[in-house]
Amino acid sequence: MDISIIGSGYVGLVTGACLADVGHHVICVDNDSEKVKQLKAGEIPIYEPGLEEIVHRNVSAQRLHFTGNIQEAVERSQIIFIAVPTPPLPDGDVDLSFVEKVAREIAGVLTDYRVIDKSTVPVKTGEKVVESIKRYNRQGAKFDVVSNPEFLREGCAVADLMHPDRIVIGAQSEQAIDLMKKVYEPFMAPILVTDISSAELIKHCANSFLALKISYINAVSGICEASGADVEKVADGIGMDHRIGRDFLNAGIGYGGSCFPKDIAAFIAISEQLGTPFALLKEVQRINEGQKARFLKAIRDTLWVLREKRIAVWGLTFKPDTDDIRSSVAIELVEQLLREGAHVVAYDPKGMHKARGIKAIADAEFASSALEAVTDAEALIIATDWNEFANVDLAVLKDKMRTPIVFDGRNLLNPETMRQFGFDYYSIGRASVKPQ
Ligand code: NAD
How remote is the CA of residue 369 from the centroid of ligand 1, in Å? Predict the structure, then answer.
């Protein structure tokens, strides 16, 4: 099938590459001319495991193309996926101006029957997209708007797209449903057909439920610390119940990233606008914020004064195996440490180039390796659970540090081993280790 994807970021580019890989003809569009130039030159603007290979393979096979020209792409496609940003507004509501702009641009060139698909949006947005296209389409084109939310996880986006748990198609017409089923046929995944509003809600419900699991175990982690219990054991114990499951029950310094914080805020906002406030999700947010505050308090309690202290931070991305630092808790932590006068030396395996561009942490020093970051450090903070950090040689780490104090915000290391190596070690929801 001929498909275009408007917006070639984390979702659009991976979706485009995977759709091309199963045999479709895909044009990825972006209005960032630098990004299009890079992609045309064979450079991949984001880090995502396996993406480079799949892009190159499909470009060579002439199934994947890149352009800045939305008109040309729409004219050639039966299906148009919209994968542009839907960032949060200051009040938590969603900025839908990117989606609206693309809807207008598509409307300007739409002639015969087309299906338009889209980004993560609040329930009822599909109706607005339909209205907008009708308003700006002078040709009176016949079209359908479908909600086909994306569930990929950065860091394993290619695998998630190739082997999805489910594909949700929210549509009004049989013609649109048939076309969308044809798009996804090669993936051989379960397909759930719904109305548009249900599909839109599924995405917000899925993300907010996952965030709820994270906040749940984080609240439990506080109780574990106060009572001497071990949150990992508690999570194992409840996670072994198949009705609950162990996934997303890892205590830590809270969720971040470009999706959870904004999607939960957006779900709260739309539920209020609909007159059915979702108060539970406000508590999810509150616990998430509290978790960062509790971690910072533990750091202050141990180090006493942060001013002039040399503090290493391992991890800047919002999760491992990505270079994405949007709304990363690690970045927030670095900002706060700098505000309190600490000398921060940060290192991340893939997120350094993006982190260097962030004004709020411009005073941080960026090390070229994890061990360089900890040299002479008075404390180490583990903010992202990269595998590289889990495999560190603890004897070398201790030797490099000025004072061997580790704050593990992702429970990446083992308290017993840390005790044996003589670290002062704080992690989340587990007993602290103090050197004898
Ligand atoms: P992104 O910022 O990585 O990519 C968006 C791209 O759209 C950018 O390259 C931008 O230049 C481009 N763009 C913006 N306006 C445009 C326009 N008018 N015409 C053409 N291109 C335009 O964002 P993303 O992470 O890919 O997210 C896109 C959507 O997918 C969001 O709604 C997000 O919530 C949703 N989503 C994201 C993820 C994720 O893990 N990143 C997962 C599921 C769903």
Answer: 30
> 2-194 architecture in CATH?
3-Layer(aba) Sandwich (3.40)
Q: Which residues pair with 285 in a beta bridge?
A: none
Query: Which listed CATH number (3.40.50.720, 3.40.50.10860, 3.40.50.1100, 2.40.50.40) goes with 230-436?
Result: 3.40.50.720
Residue 171 in contact with ligand 1 by CB distance below 6 A: no
- The distance of Cα 312 from the centroid of its chain, to the nearest Å, equals 24
Distant-in-sequence, close-in-space partners of 295: CB < 8 Å, separation ≥ 6: 253, 333, 407, 409, 428
CATH 3.40.50.720 range(s) for the chain read 2-194, 230-436
pLDDT attached to residue 118? 79
Nearest residue CA, atom 1 of ligand 1?
9
Ligand 1 atom showing the smallest separation from residue 259 Cα: 34
258 C-beta closer than 6 A to ligand 1 = yes
Distance 88 CA to ligand 1 centre (A): 13
pLDDT category at 426 given cuts 50, 70, 90 is very high
7-24 pLDDT per residue, tens: 999 999 999 999 999 999
Averaged pLDDT for residues 132-148: 94
- Residue 49: per-residue pLDDT: 96
Residue 436, pLDDT above cutoff 80? no
| Secondary element (H or E) of residue 117 | strand 114-117
Three-state SS for 66? strand
Between vectors from CA 100 to CA 97 and to CA 104, what angle results, nearest 5°? 135
Task: State how far the Cα of 266 lies from the Cα of 271, in Å rounded to an integer.
Answer: 8
Alpha-carbon distance of 182 to 176, in angstroms, equals 10
**224 in active site:** no
Cβ of 119 below 6 Å from ligand 1: yes
Closest ligand 1 atom to residue 98 Cα is 15
The reported pTM is 0.96
- The residue-averaged pLDDT of 408-418 equals 97
Ligand 1 center–CA 95 separation, angstroms: 12
Cα–ligand 1 centroid distance for 37 (angstroms) = 18
**Alpha-helical runs (H) found in 329-405:** 329-339, 352-355, 370-374, 387-390, 394-400
